[in-house]
């Protein structure tokens, strides 16, 4: 389960507690977060020849609103919810 967010987004901040709690309670899924506006993962981004890995992931998965949840099953998106609150 992936969550794409922006740190300035009020809905994301509200949802973060629920998402973090779910990541601890639901052990059958792996959870991850991607900050779509952060300047993170520069080493990996340079290795992949993109300037910002987080932004590249958000672009690849067509994130247009925050927060966006994507459920991946064997690397295929099985469910996509945008502007989840």
Gap from first CA to last CA? 16 Å
Strand order of the largest sheet: 2-1-3-4
Helix content: 25-40%
What is the H-and-E element order?
A: EHEHHEE
- SS summary, helix count: 3
The overall number of domains is 1
From the 3D structure, determine the CATH topology. Glutaredoxin
Taken as a percent bin, the fraction of beta residues is: 15-25%
Shape: globular
The name of the CATH architecture is 3-Layer(aba) Sandwich
CATH superfamily: Glutaredoxin
Please state the CA-atom Rg, rounded to the nearest Å: 13 Å
The assigned structural class equals: alpha+beta
Uncertain spans: 39-44
CATH class: Alpha Beta
Describe the structure.
There is one protein chain. Helix 1 (10-25) links the parallel strand 1 (2-5) and strand 2 (32-35). Mean pLDDT is 75; it is low at 39-44. This protein is an alpha+beta fold and 85 residues long. It has a 4-stranded mixed β-sheet, with helices on one face. The two termini are 16 Å apart. It has helices at residues 10-25, 42-47, 53-60; strands at residues 2-5, 32-35, 68-73, 76-82. The chain is built from 3 helices and 4 strands, in the order βαβααββ. It has one domain: Glutaredoxin, CATH 3.40.30.10. The relative contact order is 0.24.
């Amino acid at each position: 389960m992936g969550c794409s967010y922006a740190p300035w987004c009020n809905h994301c901040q509200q949802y973060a507690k629920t998402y973090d709690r779910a990541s601890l309670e639901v052990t059958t899924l792996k959870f991850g977060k991607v900050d779509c506006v952060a300047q993170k993962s520069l080493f990996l981004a340079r290795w992949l020849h993109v300037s910002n890995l987080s932004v590249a992931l958000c672009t690849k998965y067509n994130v247009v609103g925050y927060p966006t949840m994507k459920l991946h099953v064997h690397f295929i998106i099985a469910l996509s919810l945008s502007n989840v609150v």
